[in-house]
Fold these 2 entries.
Entry 1:
Amino acid sequence: MYKVVLIGASGLLGRAIAQGLSQQTKWQVVQTAFAHAQAPQIMLDIRDKDAIARFVDEQAPDAIVIAAAERRPDVCENDPALARALNVDAVRAIAGAAQRHGAWVLSISTDYVFDGTRPPYRHDASPAPINAYGRSKLEGEQALFDATRNGCVLRLPLLYGPIASWQESAVTSLVPAIAASTGAAAHPAVMDAWATRYPTFTPDVAFVIVQMLERHARGEPVCGITQWSGDEPMTKYDIALRLAKALGVDAQLTPQHTPADATPRPRDCHLDSSVLEALGIGRRTPFDVAIRQVLAEFPWHGEATRTAP
Ligand SMILES: NC(=O)c1ccc[n+]([C@@H]2O[C@H](COP(=O)([O-])OP(=O)(O)OC[C@H]3O[C@@H](n4cnc5c(N)ncnc54)[C@H](OP(=O)(O)O)[C@@H]3O)[C@@H](O)[C@H]2O)c1
């Protein structure tokens, strides 16, 4: 039976991948997580190289999907050792162990490997990250290819999807400020209108990953660098307008036309998805449809009263 190990099954993307894999009844799926591990997930700290080697040797999977990472740019900036441990060293250790078993490895990366000045970016465009997160993810890509020839990188842009807390996605993290900008005691919310993003729905990414695994399972693995992206350009200000509409609130939003983040972020990293599209891989749910699904599953009741399940 085809066996897939999913590393980082508790995260925003990992949960969507786990859900996508649950439809594949003919595959054996083993999930790992760390701080938020819940049965049937196995607890695995990917900073522990020996534990990774033991785990991969025990499982002997056909394929490994790495969705575990440190993906918060500010944390990566302030704790480069943690960023390196998770985004570089762990990828090398997992890929090295996979190589011994002939397992294919799919490692998730980011559009932040680019500097955002010359979009759209093909998969073979020259990366030039401008922050610690982007640099660590680029080094992680190189670590994957140093450790195995049977590896694939999937670069993704800003993600949103089913959440366990508003802050889990940079899309839904706007909701508390949008809500606070409505009503009598409103605080107008300032939203970035400088950087263009391509919000991408995690269940769509999961669909792409399952299609890639299906190809591998039938002996046609995709190797090298690939990219997947939503196709609706939006600034955070545009996203906030659409969120307000979906929430049915009259928000007071102010566009901010110059970058204001403490950690530098690229302006427009639009990822060209043509390599996967040419293979017949892909699915794009319109943003307005997908965000309504997300909000229906996790309704706004006011920040103070809402806790993550
Ligand atoms: N979110 C985005 O907008 C976005 C955009 C582009 C690319 N990406 C990439 O997509 C991938 C998934 O990101 P995400 O947003 O799903 O991240 P996330 O929600 O922050 O999830 C991170 C995952 O990493 C796991 N993890 C953290 N420390 C670990 C450790 N020491 N040992 C084992 N597992 C550990 C977490 O498990 P526990 O919580 O159980 O510890 C969790 O499952 C990453 O490669 C990220 O760079 C994300």
Entry 2:
Amino acid sequence: MKEPLVQVTDHGLFVPAADLYIDPWKPVDRAVITHAHADHARGGSGRYLSAQAGHDVLRVRLGSTARIDTLPWGERIRMGSAHLSLHPAGHILGAAQIRVEVGGEVWVVSGDYKLESDPTCRAFEPVPCHTFISECTFGLPIYRWPTPRAVFGDILTWWAGNAERGRTSILFGYSLGKAQRLLAGIHLELLDQGMEAPGPILVHGAVHRLLPPFHRAGVPLPDVLRANRESARASEGRALVVAPPSAGGTPWIRKFGQVSTGFASGWMRIRGHRRRRGGDRGFVLSDHVDWPGLLTAIRATGAERIGLTHGTTGPAVRFLREEGWDAWNVPTRFEGEAGSEAPDGSDSGEHETEGQEDA
Ligand SMILES: [Zn+2]
């Protein structure tokens, strides 16, 4: 039997032909990074490769001393006996799928991805391959996303209603990716509806420090103010505040007085998660693929072999086998732990509190 092109090791996914790890869990000599979320991009490795579009956010994550090489979308390079290229995953700014080809055999590792439109990043591109290693964070038929336009319409209605009653709207979303998608989506929805914003838009420090790469990438973002005591007071209960989930339930939130809170995540599809979050409103907005999207993406690759990773893979593996695919579970170190969109609301392992981010 032929050796698999991509193998699971105790450092993460490994490509022997290129002597390269994909999103390694521990420091390695050479790593290719699908995207800058903390559970995929870890410090300490000798040399990193990322999509050119993802360089700036990865730099924020890894710091100024990390050695980061970049590749334009679709450009092929040779590493060892493998050809490697990166293709848009539609997850967050610069998120890539990794295509590996050795002797005519092609494997693609999706990283995190979604099929819905997102003005903050290049759309997912299906890449033909023999074996597709796909994320499966929401791999159950109950997970079906509403259209993003409908969700942003709901957010605007919620914000306007709160502003009328003098309650600040606090919208929680992960500081890298989700927060900027919320800002861009709200901005475009206001323009589309020809609607005046109900009040100013404020952002938490953790969101604010990640805006420059999105500005440089030409993402359409609204004018925002850094959320602090002064901007909170001046907004007189009409503001929309975008903040990471970890800011909820901390003293940081007190400066806004009367608030209404909302949480944007794929987990909001499930009532139990909405209750546990304790947010007043849940908005179903995910940067991961939903069930119909997973099947669409798998079919679009033309792959015969499907490895599923992250999340509850069992039901999807069984379903694919019944439909004739050779499918299996690809173990990850993070099964059941906090991921980039964890049900417990943790933000990729980051703790963004007032002391660190908004002193
Ligand atoms: Zn992610």
